[in-house]
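Late entry, written up from scratch paper. The run itself happened at the end of the previous shift, but nothing got recorded in the book at the time, so transcribing now.
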Amino acid sequence: MKNFKRVLSALLCIVISVCVFSACGKKPDSPEDGTTAAPETTVIKQVSDFEEATFGISTALSMGMRFFDDSSYLDNASVLWNTLGWYCCRQESEGGKDYLTRTQVDALQHALRPGAAAISAPDNWVKGGSLEIKEVDGETRYAFPGFIDNYKDFEKNLKPELSVIDGTYVKVVLTNEDKEKETYVFGFEKDEAIGGEFPYVLKSMELPPVQTAVENDADFTAQDLIEANSLSNLLNIYKTVQVHCFYAGKEFAVNNYFMKNGEMCMASRNEDEDMPGGASYYGFFGNREFSLCHFEDNPEKTYLSSSEFISLYPESYDEYGIDTRISQAIDYGSISNVVDTGKTYTFDMVYDYSYTEDDEDVIPVKFEVDKGTLALKKIVWMQDTEYENSNEYYYGVKVDDYGMFDGFDRPFRKVKVVAELHDENMEIINFSKTYEVPDNMELYPVCYKMTNLYFNKNWTNEYKYSENLGDYTIYVTDVMG
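Output as recorded:
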């Protein structure tokens, strides 16, 4: 039976507060130095390049998917970010850095789920200590404290063996606690959109059977809960949703969800003592993610900033989605101790990967949902511990947009992005597109590669946002000089 300890149970909790990646007038992160393969001349060389590009991802996947029997579980925030954490650990164990850059996180998400919307990290991972997000020298870094010791135990006890099949598949064989073999097979395909460090994307996976510890004690499943709590479904029923988030008995965030101009929207206030006014503000308008920023020379004045991803192959990238913002708080697991209170169900859930190697107690997550719609009413993680945190959900209430959506009622400005980038063969790729955004919003292009931004096509007038730009054009290049 799979009972190997993968992550401290105190850290395996998730909350719906938003963890947003928008940059406020900062240059995008520089990618880690990647290895671009030279033209292969022998089969051995080809396999070597393939191994270098896929073995790290495959090892992380065998850990991240070890308690699941279907590839769709990778669409869950906790499962996906666990996998990113294990990748970071392998990178460190191989002599690399003990963190991932924003560029790596974006590229890994695309490699693991090509064509799908990126998934934000569960915000309470930061509160619980399993994820640290820091800005260092203009670079966003993601570290996973507590993962590395478990990763070392994983390597020592399960002895992963990796091999290549037919040049496009990686087989990972683990030897579990009962001396049984667990075999994982991951199929990959070359994708030039990523380039450099991650030139292959995941196309298929074969997983071994999974033993679960507890059978469901309800006539609904975790998947039913996830589907019922899609934002589109909740707004269709209730028109508005408000989520209050607590940690250690103190409210630290309020997320408001509503419809505006036919789009699903979110306005979030997060306590942040480092920001003017003691709070930071984030939002969504459909697939447009943005944050409220303060001008460096006048903190009293604010503007919205929204990152726009560009790549060598723009059609291969999908924007961050909003429809899973509520359901991200629900993980996959076994439901027990169901109580019908008349209007709601209360129950416990033990996540599928919450097992420990020494049979110590696992604290179940406490749920309360509406009996008719399965809409979330309350979730409590790590109850009666120093890590206790909770979400409370309210429907059909008056919500606050914190003034961030005023610009959406005025005529939009036009921002044209003109990019000249280079592929791995140093061939020029030109990209040009015009976007429409509110007149108080900066549209900031970001890329997997290091780029510089300018106001002119000769690349001499460096870009800097101001409130008087009106319609404007940004010229992007990966030529450094």
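DSSP finds seven helices and 23 strands in the chain.
(Scratch paper discarded after transcription.)
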